[in-house]
Amino acid sequence: MRGARTLQWSALAAAVALAATACGGGSDSGGSSASGKPEGYVSMFNGEPQHPLMPSDTNEKFGGYVIDALFTGLVAYDQKGGLINENAESVDSKDNKTWTVKLKKGWKFHDGTEVTAKSYVDAWNWMANVKNKQANSYWFGDIKGYEDVHPEKGDPKKDSMEGLKVVDDHTFTIELTDAVPYFEYKLGYKTFAPLPKSFYKDPKGFGQKPVGNGPYKFEKWTHNKLVQVKAVGSYKGSNKAKNKGIQFKNYSKVESAYQDALSGNLDLVDGVGPKDLPKRKADFGDRALDVPYAGTQSIVPTVYSKPFKDVDPKVLQGLSMGIDRKTITKTVLQGTRVPSTAFTPPQVRGYKKLDSDVLTYNPKKAKKLVKEGGGVPGNKIWIQYNADGGHKEWVTAVCNSITKSTGVQCVGDSKPDFQTDLNARQDNKVKGMYRGGWLADYPLNINFMQDLYKTGASTNYGRFSDKKVDELFEKGDHADSLEASVKDYQEAEKELAKKMPAIPLWDYAANIVHGEGIDGVKVGYDGNVLVTDITVK
Amino acid sequence: MGRYVARRLLQMIPVFIGATLLIFCMMYALPGDPVAALFGEKAPDPAQVAAIKHQLGLDLPLWQQYWNYLTGLFQGDFGTQIATQRPVADVISQAFPVTIRLTLFAFVFTVVAGILLGLISGLRADKAFDRVVLFFTLLLISVPSFVLGYFFQYLFAFQLGWTTPTVQNSEDLGQLLLPAIVLAGLSLAYVTRLTRTSVAENLRADYIRTAIAKGLPRRRVVGIHLLRNSLIPVVTFLGTDVGALMAGAVVTEGIFNVHGVGNTIFEALNRREGSTVVGIATLIVIVYLVASLLVDLLYAVLDPRIRYD
Q: Domain ABC transmembrane type-1: where (chain B) (predicted)?
């Protein structure tokens, strides 16, 4: 039988090739039992955290949800952008330079050890150290001695910052290089978390199996499937969990999560795909929520580009007034955004509606202003955006709106993905404007201006530079109190409206749909669902 | 025969090196810096970026990076992901079994259903059954897979309630049935049509007439003489299709939330995780190579006139 022999050879060849590549390796998907959800838990849409689960390495939403559930820092923000003390009894400073932190007693990590001043100081020193490669390390840049552990080049000189001092078990002081009146606000960011002693034994393992001090305790992380956390009964913070636990389930598309929510296999989805936006109210009724939060989208002119080199701000004001924000948010964006009323969103402290009409649609005045300002060279502008983020539709709409009302030609400049888009911004290669988005790091108006419009600021990709604005920022940074600082920045914002370093378009709203089994779905200032408040019926 | 197989296996080595080098260079040429991407929209901290790059060896020249990657590969080290800091081998070994299950399922479905349908309609060319099959396969070919995916989801999960809309547990074959059918849809249509044409054509061939004339039972005529000769084009198609099924499942995997290779490579590409992309792409290249070797060997099984000596 010739045929049979050839068949044997075929099988052998396949076996050899497959063995050589060691294919079909062990399948360790873990937790292979049925997908059941423990009683009283809430399951919600999430994605695979992009970094190890470390407070100082997490800066994206998926990991952020888990970190916020596992860790509680010194202070937290309420829904209106105010500060509340959590692990801190008090955070005080007389000169805004040296801050004294007193901790509440009796707080414990989930492994039973106590949260002390040392838990904070040691953790921050570790996180700031350049050798430990934490993405959020720059947050510690205000602290005195940061350069010692995080030099611009080479190895760190010391392994601790001299600005951090433990006074006793429940007190420590933070000395800053310069006074920062709003430092207390920064402390609410997730990277300023404490770490337990056990962390230092195996930092790498900790990132896969973190031990926190927050409202939930880590249970399991099955990669590509889910992260599960369990409510802690003895938790002492104000955001004690009202449910028994959370399952953060991993979806690669919001559309499939939507389908699961619709069929009752998933409790909550925060994010609705374009396909489902028009029918979310019909599908979920009053369980489809749109909650505005502190994030803005704008189009930012670059000062080096041809259309906007030495441009008269009047032209930019004109372009801004030529955009029909109301109609676009209602139609193209399906009510997922709210037209901007200032450079800052209403959910942050210090927000004030702009006392000017530059953000109001007025095609006549728009045309007039553009003309008065001398127009745009070539009468053509570009808006750069990344094609993988669903921006094409609104960019086109904004462009049409501008062209219609001002006569300036406007085209979208599409980059294949966010990486390419960002690269062009960083290398000063934007052709005209780019799509800018900013989400609050902390709910303060300062956060929406300083990083974006100060000369040489890290995220100032438009390369905007204005003396008067810088002066006002500077003044605010050296104010005596938080109130004064916020006020100075409000002044600066008025100046921004005259100079137009960006054209604010709209603020984000979180689009949430949830099942009948849960209640109490609320959204924080940052657009994240407050998972601790969810109750299970 | 043995020498032929050995030669083909040896030929895989340069193809393997060439493929990895090409993909490696392509990843390198793509705009965007994976380390800078760790900082999201914010401007990256240069000191931190430098430290991370140094530790991962990303500050070395391209050829050195490639050399390090290759030598690592021969020691079974696929590298480490930049953002998650997980070994790429881990990531792959989590995604591959899922995809293999899905692909095998889809493949078996394609082969069994496709050949069976093709055979029947080929034997009854231009009868009612044949017309119906031709119509439905045309439909399958022209409808994009995501439409089919959402339609099946709507029909089977929401209207009939037979299954959950997405795959909750990728080890449960019952749940994989729906995505497997959607995935197999297009190949199924091709296989059916290929088999049908080939069968209908060979049915008129001299050797079939001879076989019937010498009084062989119909089962033997169809099963051995007809089918074996008719399957050559089908096998060619199936061979390349295995690779396409594995790598091309991004859309289907997305709709049914299956976390397989397609999704993993897509995400890695977006985040510029070079070592992950190269690792997975290389494995897929090898699957292709093995499949095409198998196809070539199967030719000899199917058609005794073909010899490899």
A: 96-299
